[in-house]
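Incident log, entry 3
Record: RING-type E3 ubiquitin transferase (181 residues)
Problem: checksum mismatch between cached and fresh output.
Input:
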Amino acid sequence: FCTPCLQECLKPKKPVCGVCRSTLSPGSRALDLEKQIEMTETTCNGCNKKMYLSKMRSHAASCSKYQNYIMEGVKAVTKEPLHNTRNFPNRFTFPCPYCSERNFDQEGLVEHCKTLHSMDAKQVVCPICASMPWGDPNYRSANFMEHLQRRHRFSYDTFVDYDADEDDMMAQVLMRSLRDK
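Fresh output:
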């Protein structure tokens, strides 16, 4: 847990478990969990050495191969800052395709359209899809509300690297899946 969340759970008036939020008894330890940690074996993702979970933290601190493994993961998800943002489309805020309201994030646009335009049958261009590299700014969805429900339940930014081509992304996924076995 991060310090602010842990501090919230340990307030002197009523300390609670950080997971289930049940009241903690002073000085009580989760002995069953400690025993399970002592008896569960795992393998270091860096050097492939087998050890008990209870030893993993100290091993990870001194294993250079594990630290390299972690840094590869960090590099894979870290992007260089964009220097010239004028050439990049806005993929963060969108206008409503039915009315004049603007500056919705993806979730806000979905909620706005569900609330105010659920019965509107007019064919419109999806502003989220139109902003994507593969999007067609002229394609009008036959059923925009169904499209929103099916295609925009999550943010593409979480899963897509817009600067990588599809072959590069597939290669990265395959390498990570082989490494994590």
